[in-house]
Predict the structure of Hormone-sensitive lipase.
Amino acid sequence: MRFKFFQRGLRLATGNLKRMMSFPDSPAKASLCCEETLEGAPPTYAMYEALKDSCQNNATYFQPDDSENGQRLYQGFMTLIDHIDTVWPLVDHVRKVAPLYDFDSKSPGNGYRSFVSVVDSCILHGLKLSRQVCSGRDALLFRKGYFVREVESCGQLLASLGTCLHHLQTLLSWAPPGDLFPTEQHSPEELFSQADTINQYCFYGRCLGFQFTPSMRGILKGISICMAGFSEAYYSHGNLISSVWTGGQYIIDPEMRARRIVNISQSASVEFCKAFWFLAESEIMKRVPSLMSSTVAVNKLITIPPEPITVTTMEGKETTVLPPTVHIGLQSLNVRLISVNKRADMVGEGTSSLPPADGVLFHCHGGGFVSQSSKSHETYLREWATKLNVPILSIDYSLAPQAPFPRALEEVFYAYCWMLNNFKEIGTTGKRIVFAGDSAGANLIAGCSLKILSAGLRPPEGLFMAYAPLLISFIPSPARLLCLMDPLLPFGFMMRCLKAYASPNSTGKGKPDNRSNKEPTVSNATSPLDSNGFLKVSPSQEGISESPSSFEEVSPSDLAELQAHKSGSERRKSSDTTISAASLQSEHTATGVTPTEDKSQQYVSEFLERYVLDSDTDSEGRRFPIIKPNNRTREDSNKELESEASNTLVGEPPLIEELDSKESKKRIKTRISEAATGLMGAMSSRLAYITGSNTITRPTQDELAVRTNLDALIARSPSDEFIFSVPRDPLLSPYWADDELLKKFPPVRILTVHLDPCLDDCVMFAKKLKKLGNVVGIDVLEGLPHGFLNFSLMAKEANEGSKLCVERIKQLLDLGNDTTSSNGDNHL
């Protein structure tokens, strides 16, 4: 008996060793895991054959097994074989035509290639799983139930990818070879009507993150669990026990987590997206860069007052740039200065013997146009400042939906004009200016470049854009479909952000720009809750004044007065800001609070402290209201039951009339019975309440309030909730810019990833610039998600990607390097 156990243990250990040696993690190297190769076929195809053979082996083994799990394993492996036979010819066709859509042979990458990589990753995942079953099925402790769920999840995943491949066939028919966007008008609804609806659950359950690098999978899984758990706290309406109980279940129940994430993507409001992403700026996360990133000598906020700025055009003429006023009126603008060294004449830093740097990096952060700030992007900005050895000026622009397009763009342009007049104060000679931005920030610097060229001002010497959305609308493209399986940028999140920024009137959030003079707008709220019981984010982050009183819209006469008094000495006295020069303060002041310490961070901290840490006060000892639902819900009725039960026990008024002993005993007996019944009913309803998931409601869309069946969310097209029009404005979507203006673009370096829903934007924009004769280059990285720069401290591959960003920016900053001839032709 001992010998048999020893044999089984040895067989298990040997199987584990073989798996470790046989299964690479990159789909590009997947063929290495297959001993057999198909004659005359690419090595990757051997992986498909190997999976079929392994599944057939396992199916033959479990076919005689009469147990429920044994038969489910048999059916699961047979189903996998059927899905492979269905997917193989579809992915084969896409694999053959995908190279036609690349930017060039040196930079392979487009949405079609991405889906081929995703399918290959799924096949590799299935092969690992099947071989794991094959090597362990004879073991004493083999868990059939566990592998049943894993195999069935893999089958569902492959089936959903097969549906995606059918959609890709439709997209191929809509555009000529080489064009990733349809040449004619086609809507997402038309695309999704061509094939079965995609089941999104499988992408967020047991197989979550299968398409990414191993170092990112754990991070993405953790973020998904946090998102699901945070949604419970966010929509708990004050029920701490429910949010903690249900939130904890997402750790151990992948299926439950998948259903919640899909529900969030389909139904959660843009305010939830803002609140969740603002967690990156909570008190704990704010300390991470200073603890883990490089140390910098300068990290301060500069407040630019809203006053006219006089700049000189390329023709030597002076022109006045007025401060932005659209949507939210006059506001001061915050920018963050980061530098690894103190330099001579750098404002607020005393004296320094180090001369100003020749270059400067003008940066815009990402966040879907609706969240985050320069502070949340310090994780990589500190590293960049250290390795580039130039000052970085990062812009904290106003956020949608309170400040939709074009407010943020106007603020970025205004900050650039201010920088042109203040090189000395930020520690540079301004000899070399490079723009840099990621995600939404990349869109803003591209739009800002167009405004600069149109105004005839000095353009930057180069643009660096990371995973940039350059076409702000859901034009069907292969890469856009990746958001249906993206853990960080789900379909609903992306569409809500685009809608809030580009089409505010359809959401009811945007403010028309034709209000009468002196009309009051939104005032600073004293409660962190809005009228719907949702968590508010910071007024300054949303572009709302932080002063106690409301601000006012600026009339044309006010603008004329501003222009006439561009010195700022006689500027109109408003409640926002009346300083005549930029105010500066170090990140770490004596009081520990910056001039623009964002109240969104306070609100998020209060939210977490109240509902996660079970505290009634914030860090300053102030109480804030409990979130309560707007309408009568299940929670209301449950609370009423509790109230009735408690009143029966302790709240009954004393008897006034004298009763005889018999009636008194009867009345007491009746009350005891009623009290017991009420108590048991209250306890039963409360138990059901605290163990149930909190409903996500959409107060802006009444029809979603009655859709309580989560399966119904998948039974319809995922685009049903996001039908909105976006103006074809080149400042909003730089891809639509006029060719004559694009020809004047400075050298451009684009870095993106294969699994980015915005990949096709980057490829098509780079192609357009290349066709016009511009200097442009593109890098496409494997296995990383959109927004990977924010994880550069946690994942090796993300850190390597950040280092590549630094190298590309250095090429644009290097004064002695002729970028037009470094790599030949139009490629950087």
In short: The mean pLDDT is 75. The two ends are 68 Å apart (CA to CA). The first strand starts at residue 298 and ends at 304.
